[in-house]
Every structure is written in C-alpha cells, then in structure tokens.
Specification:
Elements lengths: L1 H4 L2 H6 L1 H6 L4 E5 L4 H11 L5 E5 L24 E5 L12 H7 L4 E5 L6 H10 L2
Length: 129
C-alpha cells in the first residue's frame, strides 16, 4: 500500500481517502508561477510528507530552482522528487538553493535528463551528497 499511496493514482482515484490520509502525498505539475504554487501546496498540506514536482520542459534554467527554498517551511516533508528534464540548465551554479531544502529532507530525487549540466554542474550535484 505504501507504493500506491505515493503514486499519482492515489490522489486521483479517491479524493476523500486522500484527504483522510492528511494530504501527505502530492504530485504537482508546474508550468509557471512555481513559487506561488509551492506556497499554496505548503499552506494546503502542512502534513505533506512526500512531494513530486514535475518541472520538466518549462524553461526554468539554473536560477529557476530558487523558489524551492520555500519547501524548507514544510515541516513534515521528508521526500522530494524533482523532475527537471528538458530545461536549459547548462551550468547549475545556483544549486545552493537545493542544498537549503535538502537539509530538511531524508531523501532528494533529481532527474536532470536532457540537460547539459557540464563539469561544474556535476561538481555542484556531488556537493549535495
């Protein structure tokens, strides 16, 4: 059941049951207004434990991860999955924003497929470990 609870299916199959579980599991697709949506997610679901953010192909660039700092205010969040595929992240110089969020997490999953992060970006990602 734990795998089912973390899937996209759970939130769509039964909204009432999802509510009973305290809105702990959420998947959000962000095309724009990322910071505003994250603040709403945190306010709407203060007991949120697992969050998947689908940010693929929206052109956020390296500094576009800055709004993710708002997630440090989600007290129960322990697992964050970021899908950053197909964004123009050539040099991840602002990866420090992710480091701020990572400190509060047990697990951080990143998907950078389709990005040319280069050597400096790879070093920044290694520093997150």
């Amino acid at each position: 059941i734990a795998d089912f609870l973390q899937s996209d299916t759970f939130g769509q199959v039964c909204q009432r049951l999802w509510g009973y579980f305290g809105r702990r599991y959420m998947t959000v697709r962000c095309q724009s207004q990322i910071e505003e949506k994250l603040r709403r997610v945190i306010a709407y679901a203060p007991s949120l434990q697992i969050l998947t953010l689908d940010l693929r192909g929206n052109g956020i660039g390296a500094s576009g991860v800055q709004p993710l700092v708002a997630l440090k205010d989600a007290p129960s969040l322990h697992t964050l999955t970021l899908d950053l595929r197909g964004n123009p992240i050539a040099h991840i110089t602002d990866i420090g924003y992710l480091a701020v969020v990572k400190e509060a997490l047990h697990r951080l999953n990143l998907d950078f497929r389709g990005n040319s992060i280069g050597a400096s970006g790879a070093q920044a990602l290694v520093a997150l470990k």
